[in-house]
Every structure is written in C-alpha cells, then in structure tokens.
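ugh ok fine here u go
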Amino acid sequence: MCGILGVMATTPVNQLLYDGLMVLQHRGQDAAGIATAEDNTFHLHKGPGLVRDVFRTRNMRALPGNWGIGHVRYPTAGSAYNFAEAQPFYVNSPFGIVLGHNGNLTNADLLKDEMFRMDRRHINTNSDSEVLLNVLAHELQAASHGYELDVDSIFNAVAGVHRRCRGAYAVVALIAGYGLLAFRDPFGIRPLVYGKNETEAGTEYLVSSESVALDTLGFEIVRDIEPGEAVFIDLNHNLHSRQCAQQPTYAPCIFEYVYLARPDSVIDGVSVYEARLRMGELLAEKVRRTIPVEEIDVVIPIPDSSRPAAMQLAQALAIPYREGFVKNRYVGRTFIMPGQAMRRKSVRQKLNTCGQEFKGKRVLLVDDSIVRGTTSREIVDMARAAGALKVYFASAAPPVRFPNVYGIDMPTRQELIATGRTDEGIASEIGADALVYQDIDALKQSVSSINPDITVFDASCFDGCYITGDVDEHYLDAVEGRRSGKGSKGDDDGDGKASQQLVLQLAAGGQD
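structure:
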C-alpha cells in the first residue's frame, strides 16, 4: 500500500503535490518523493520519513515545473530500510521516464531475470517498482516508431505491460517531452481516480490513489480509472484514455474499505464511510447471535477507522456508544510500522484509556480487523487495567488467515494470529471473554450493496483466493523464506540521505 499522485497543471505543481501527499500520508510513512518536469528536465527529491520531514523550503524551490508526480512509500516487496528504494524511480532509455507505483508484482523475480537476459536492462534495487518501470520502458521502445512516441504507441506499451506483469499495480509516470501516463492493473486491485480543474489558462488534471486528494485540492472528480485502462494527458492538456487489457475484471481490494483508505474517500463508486457503516450493521447481527445483548453495557471503538462500524453497531443493538480511548495523533499507524516490537511499543504510546468508560462495565470493543493480534492484545489488557468487568471483542472484518501479496504488509502466515486458530483460540490469545468476527459474505455485501456493479473482490487475506491466479503454496513459501532470511536493518548510507536530490537532464526521446 502506497499513495501516488500525478498532476498536469497550468502553474507550478510542487506545492500541489506536497499538499496532496500530506492528504495521502496514511497510505505510507516510510518515505516520500516528488518529481516535476520543466521543459526536458526532471527534478526529483525523495528521502526517508514523513512528507513534512522529507521536504524543506530549499527542496521545494528545486522542484519547478507545471507537471509532476508524487509518492508516499509503504514498504512491502523491498527493504523497509533501504531508502534507495524510495520512489519515484527514473530511467533514461529509450525515453526519460519517472514512475511511481502502488501495489506489488507477484512475478517480479521472473521479470527481473527477463530484463537482464532478454531486454538487456539493469535493475539496481530489490524493488518491484523499478522492475515495473523497466518493463514499461522496454515496451515503449518496442511500441515506438523509431524513437518517436504517439498516443497509440503509449497505449500499446501499456498493453504490453499488462501481458507481462502479474499482481497489483496502480501507476503514474512522466514521459519526458510527452506527458503524464496513469494506468491500473487488469483487476483494479489498487485504487486510482482522476479529476479536473478548469482555469483561465486551461484544464488541469489530477490523478490520485484516493478521491480525498482531489476534494482537498479543489479538483472535480471525473471517475475512477477502470481496471486495465490507461489515461494519458499530453503537454497540450488533451486527455486520452483506452482499455489496454484483454479481459479486465473489476476486483478491488476489499481491505481498502476495511482499513486502508480514508473514510472520506470514494473508491470505485463506493463511499468508504458508508461501507464501514454497513459493516457495523451486519456485524451487529452476528454479535446478536453470539453474545447476549444484555451482557453488554457499552460499545467502544478502537480509533480511528473502526468508528463508523462501531457507531452503527451500537445503534443497531441499542447499546450506548462511548469513546473510551484517546488517541495520540502524533504516532503513526501501527499497522504499517515495520517490525513487531515497534508496533507493540507504539500501541501504548498511541492510545490511552478514559477510565470512567471502563470501570465496572462489560464492554464490547470494536476494531476494523485483527491481523497480528499485537494491538488487540494490548488494548484488551488496557481495558481490564481500567476496570472493565468483561471485555468482548468484535472485528468488522473476517479472520485474516492468509498472506496478502498485493501490497499489504502481512505476508507470512506465522505472523497472522488467525492462522491455525479457532475463534475461541484467538479470543484466548488476545485475552478477550468472547470474540465475534464479521462473515466474509457480509463483508462483501457491505461494499457491493453500495455499488452493485462490483461483484468480485480481492479478499485473498480472508478467503485465500488470489485473483491473479498465479499465487500458490510454492510462491507463499518463497515469500516467507525471503522475509525470514532478511539481513540486518539499516542498509542505507548511514545518514539516511541516499538519493535525496537529483536533477536529471533529459533529451526528450533520447537514448543513453
């Protein structure tokens, strides 16, 4: 899970990209980067940390140009501590291209080998995003007429990417001398939306992982980019679009609605907030069948993403809803923090209890999901320490029993608390008196009831069905083997400033 932005504007875009990345900060807090284009020059700055820490005034001044892309990184396929893998990535042959990617390629190793043996292209990091960039560059070269590109060539190149790449990918890219390209994998696993802003100087376009960036930056939402579709905006601000996949299927990641996306976003025609309300309604039915309602004195959410579900559940069960946890908003999302020890330590720093809401009460805690169980265990302990007589726990999502290979950091079965355990066993493990999970069909219904056109989802972390059809036990074993054999942390240049500021002189369409 990362956040990506692409802008084609009539005025300098550095501040626009910065503001947009701030809005998308929840999608990645490991690293951030911005690339802008001015004439035939790309200006790129990226580095470790939050957006506000990576970009200073001097960095912003060094990012001129009226079109550009931005990225916030949440590491999955690469190393969490190798900041050379911060995005955007750049390649200069046969066309200058800067690319940002959200998702994860499941055949990155095969593609990397093909790049070296057949395409004669060198991959310098372990990032699948650099692999994707080089696949796109190679396909652009193959589709171009000599060393000149036209719209047909660009879309043919994206079709070539779809034929070769497997997995999840939402992409924004700058092509020197030509324009801004955005495309989405044939299943639409990771989200991508675009909007426009009419100015006296012409139409401006913004592409984003979530609609909330368009809202806050003053752009009118046009629509989601469809699975397999590519959108290209040329330097004259003409927008071209084409379906580039042979058999596209709408199968968005359902975990976006559960946790990843902001509640004020609309993804593929579905309000994330409304979907979470529906999750609460359906979860209430399951709670009613599992726990005597008269045994529950109060419903308390675990902030922030579980609030809509908890409020709707409390209303459906006619049980008082209370805010029992106060959140320190200066601590990042523990789910996307690298390392179990860091997540455990951060829970106590992130949340504190309002003792009066727990003392002498039987409480039902509601969370959006339970992944590793670290947060859940700590929170149950906090509730008991605050005086709760009984602690029940409800999850708005089903048990996470399978690895996610499409861009969410839960790839090993050993890390998942639900793997190999019954619901009763999980309740015992987190210290709860009872545990209620949402049913998978109810979760899907909570989203599809808002947009009936979406009938298929990537729900692989819940049901083990991998929509791309290329993930098997051997693949999962290989992923887990790589993670367990990962080397020591801190493989950057010591001060974490690798690839901080690059200015890339490009001849449009030139070779190296």
